[in-house]
Write a structure and sequence with these properties.
Blueprint (H helix, E strand, L loop, with lengths): L1 H6 L8 H13 L3 E6 L3 E8 L4 E7 L18 E4 L2 E4 L6 H17 L6 E8 L7 H9 L9 E3 L45 H12 L2 H5 L8
Parallel strand pairs: 3-6, 3-7
Antiparallel strand pairs: 1-2, 2-6, 4-5
């Protein structure tokens, strides 16, 4: 399955083939499956009595990158993007992430007599363009997906097969995007004191932003 997904990468919000595989596998395992969440997202729900609600998430989309690994199952796929044919490949491990999720889904079914609660498997589109999670969150709870008590996920790393790397406390950083607008006031070159220059203002702000970590965050706190 991993090799098949790797050979057939799909860009953000076009993950139809991968989503179909996920939906088919989860349905065969007995999960209640909801498709088309956030366009191509898939959710599988397995209820197993009273207990915590645990959600496991994996991303499905690929990157617009030419594969040069030389693997026998390497991607040779080309996709039209903004009128231009571009090569695509799974360069960020989402093929593995999706395969892991389906493996976990299968194992949890086999171990149903050893746990209680609700397990939710989420196959998310468009992680690479930072849009898929938001698109799914806007729809999934309206479509009957329970709100989780715990949300889990894993990412590939250059470590030996069979190892899982983790440490107590914070492990990875998240990214946030802020839109900032600087408003100036126009004026005449002969009277600069009556104008407000947004370029200088924004330049000063950029310099100040660079000191947030070094001057405003406790050194014992996690920040990047």
């Amino acid at each position: 399955m991993f090799k098949g997904i790797h050979q057939n990468p799909e860009l953000a919000f076009t993950e139809a083939r991968t989503a179909e595989i996920v939906a088919k596998e989860l349905t065969a395992l007995g999960y209640t499956v909801i498709t088309g969440i956030g366009k191509t997202g898939v959710v599988g729900i397995l209820k197993n009595g009273e207990g915590p609600i645990v959600m496991y998430r994996a991303d499905m989309d690929c990157n617009a990158v030419k594969e040069t690994t030389g693997l026998p199952y390497a991607s040779t796929k080309m996709v039209e993007r903004e009128g231009v044919d571009v090569p695509v490949m799974h360069a960020c491990g989402h093929d593995a992430h999706t395969t892991w999720m389906l493996g976990i889904a299968k194992i949890m079914v086999a171990l149903k007599d050893q746990w209680k609660g609700t397990l939710i498997m989420v196959a998310q589109p468009a992680e690479e363009i930072i849009s898929g999670a938001k698109a799914m969150a806007a729809e999934m709870y309206e479509k009957g997906v329970p709100e989780p008590d715990y949300l889990l996920g894993m990412h590939t790393a250059p470590i030996p097969v069979g190892f899982y790397v983790n440490v107590p406390g914070y492990r990875l950083a998240g990214g946030g995007i802020l839109d900032v607008t600087f408003y100036g006031i126009g004026g005449h070159g002969s009277a600069p004191q009556e104008a407000i220059d947004p370029i200088v203002m924004s330049a000063n702000a950029i310099l100040q932003y660079q000191t947030i970590i070094s001057r405003n965050i406790d050194p014992q706190s996690a920040a990047v």
